[in-house]
């Protein structure tokens, strides 16, 4: 019961206060009208992802995905979450991921944003990944620029060989929002105010990308050698 209570608390924090405080300004509301965004909270169900001292990755991923969806809906976009009830996900990880990719590609969305938490000791800072393609790189770069400005992290965009990104048929990024294994960062990720600020930056970077996407190819940023390295 204690774990279910904690899970409920983390997810509830994502939607509490997500009204006027989280709503984008009226000026931005028409900008994403008619756009479709698919948000994939990583892991879930019998796959908890990485574990922190106080919570599980899948619960934070879902909480942040729901809050991010509030921003996009406020800007007029249609938002599709790959899952919102962990007990409805398939039992096996392989089936879970394959069904998720089928849903993503069947959504006909223009953008995929995958939400994960990183793990690895007391490291800190969010990082945005992509698999391939100029559009995905540019989206990752614009989101990471916003996250760098917010958190002052020195982490840069990088490639990652991730199944969901590899097989998504639209520009796709994976935002590793922070290190759940760092107790200080885990505490921030559980905080509703921090969740609101963090997801606003992901939203803002994506909004910038939609404005930038029609520009000539020559005006799009090119990945550096370091950003082309694959994890």
Provide structural commentary.
With 231 residues, the protein is of the alpha/beta class. It has one domain: Zn-dependent exopeptidases (Aminopeptidase, 3-Layer(aba) Sandwich), CATH 3.40.630. The protein has helices at 2-15, 57-74, 93-106, 134-151, 163-167, 183-190, 192-212; strands at 36-41, 78-81, 111-118, 127-130, 158-159, 172-179. A 6-stranded mixed sheet has the order 2-1-3-6-4-5. Residues 15-21 and 25-29 have low confidence and may be disordered.
Level-2 CATH architecture: 3-Layer(aba) Sandwich
Biggest sheet architecture: 6 strands, mixed
Helix content: 40-55%
* Alpha-beta classification: alpha/beta
* Measured distance between first and last alpha carbons: 38 Å
Overall pLDDT confidence: 86
Uncertain runs are 15-21, 25-29
The CATH homologous superfamily is termed Zn-dependent exopeptidases
Q: Strand order across the biggest sheet? A: 2-1-3-6-4-5
What would you say about this model in short?
The protein is of the alpha/beta class and 231 residues long.
Ordered list of secondary-structure elements with their pairings:
Blueprint: H1 2-15, E1 36-41, H2 57-74, E2 78-81, H3 93-106, E3 111-118, E4 127-130, H4 134-151, E5 158-159, H5 163-167, E6 172-179, H6 183-190, H7 192-212
Parallel strand pairs: 1-2, 1-3, 3-6, 4-5
Antiparallel strand pairs: 4-6
């Amino acid at each position: 019961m204690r774990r279910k209570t904690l899970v409920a608390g983390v997810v509830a924090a994502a939607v509490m206060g997500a009204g006027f405080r989280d709503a984008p300004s009226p000026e931005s509301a028409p900008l994403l009208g008619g756009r479709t965004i698919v948000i994939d909270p990583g892991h879930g169900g019998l796959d908890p992802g990485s574990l922190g001292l106080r919570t599980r990755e899948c619960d934070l991923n879902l909480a942040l995905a729901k809050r991010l969806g509030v921003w996009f809906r406020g800007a007029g976009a249609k938002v599709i979450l790959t899952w919102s009830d962990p007990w409805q996900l398939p039992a096996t990880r392989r089936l879970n991921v394959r069904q998720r990719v089928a849903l993503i590609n069947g959504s006909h969305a223009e953008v995929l944003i995958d939400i994960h938490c990183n793990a690895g000791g007391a490291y800190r800072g969010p990082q945005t990944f992509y698999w391939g393609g100029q559009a995905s790189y540019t989206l990752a770069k614009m989101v990471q620029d916003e996250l760098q400005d917010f958190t002052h992290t020195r982490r840069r965009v990088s490639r990652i060989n991730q199944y969901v990104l590899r097989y998504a048929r639209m520009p796709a990024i994976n935002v590793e929002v922070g290190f759940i294994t760092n107790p200080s960062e885990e505490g921030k990720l559980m905080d509703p105010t921090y969740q609101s600020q963090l997801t606003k930056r992901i939203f803002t970077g994506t909004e910038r990308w939609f404005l930038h996407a029609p520009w000539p190819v020559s005006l799009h940023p090119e990945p550096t050698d370091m950003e082309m390295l694959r994890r």
